[in-house]
Design goal:
It is built from 6 helices and 15 strands. It has 292 residues and is an alpha+beta fold. Strands 1, 2, 3, 4, 5, 8, 9, 10 and 15 form a 9-stranded antiparallel beta sheet that branches. A 4-stranded antiparallel beta sheet has the order 12-11-13-14. The chain has a two-stranded antiparallel sheet with strand order 6-7. It is globular and about 65 Å long. The mean pLDDT is 85.
């Protein structure tokens, strides 16, 4: 075994129904349902990306829910090359096979939100793809419980849990001349704007820019906005501020770049490169337990 560092990101997930936050138990129920399916039935095949995800492990016997999602890229079969003599040979795997890559996560359920600690893995699954994976099983789940439907009866909101560095960085500005707020486009269709029929051609996220009048700064406004958004953790996906420090240095800070990230050490098998899942899941449990 060899030691290697891994980064763990923290996210908050809420379920919204009729403009109210509801108990997030339906997400746990979805995980439990997927767990009961045969292995091939747990596959989500992203054909356009030539990638699959499948739930490999889910422990539903605890207030904390550790899980493992396995991912693989297929239709990719470059020749193998020997490191000693540079000789090459045909790759023996089939086009429908790919190297299985695990992403470990742990979920803590509260009354009105889920806290998810998840590995940062480019070759694995991220938070948005995890939500997409769960939605993939909507039809089968609701048919299973005798309530056939095509869509979830609630909206899933998620956002990174930021650390305190954003406000610390914001305090370095002598003048902030631009603030940007990235929101979900569905807010454009809310009661205040009522543009829901006109947003089909707009990307999922919309950026609102805030600029001060001459000689003033948007720092206080953005600080107040950040402090009001963090407790809810929803709707606003990202906050960026640009300005100048006392040293005259131009600085750009991004709330996504200062999200709460934990660094941990994991054990890898020297031959397969696979992580020791027991040790990693134990570390993830400790991380989510420490979240209020």
């Amino acid at each position: 075994m060899i030691e290697k560092g891994r980064k763990i990101s923290l996210y908050s997930v809420e379920l919204i129904k009729n403009n109210r936050v509801i108990d997030p138990e339906p997400i746990i129920a979805l995980f439990k349902f997927i767990k009961t399916l045969p292995k091939e039935g747990r596959i989500q095949d992203l054909e356009d990306r030539k990638k699959i995800h499948l739930l490999e492990y889910f422990n539903d016997e605890s207030p904390l829910y550790p899980a493992i999602i396995k991912s693989a890229k297929y239709y990719h079969r470059p020749p193998l090359i020997d490191k000693d003599n540079a000789s090459e040979r045909e790759n023996p795997k089939s086009l429908t096979e790919g190297e299985g890559e695990r992403t470990h996560l742990c979920i803590k359920k509260g009354d009105d939100e889920l806290i998810i600690a998840i590995e940062d893995r480019k070759v694995g699954i991220g938070i948005s793809s995890l939500i997409s994976y769960l939605k993939h099983f909507t039809d089968r789940y609701y048919e299973h419980i005798g309530e056939p439907r095509r869509r979830l009866p609630y909206r899933i909101n998620y956002a990174p849990i930021p650390n305190n560095d954003f406000l610390n960085e914001l305090g370095r500005f002598v003048r902030a001349d631009l603030g940007e707020i990235v929101i979900e486009k569905r807010i454009l269709g809310s009661e205040c704007l009522n543009l829901s029929d006109r947003t089909e051609v707009i990307r999922d996220h919309v950026t609102i820019s805030v600029q001060p009048v001459p000689t003033f700064s948007v720092s206080d406004f953005m600080r107040e906005l950040f402090n009001s958004v963090v407790p809810t953790r929803m709707d606003i996906k990202k906050i960026r501020v640009r300005g100048k420090t006392a040293e005259g240095v131009q600085l750009l800070i991004d709330s996504n770049l200062v999200k709460a990230v934990e660094d941990i050490t994991v054990l890898l098998d020297e031959i397969t490169g696979q992580v020791n899942s027991i040790r990693l899941l134990s570390a993830l449990r400790e991380i989510v337990q420490g979240q209020a």
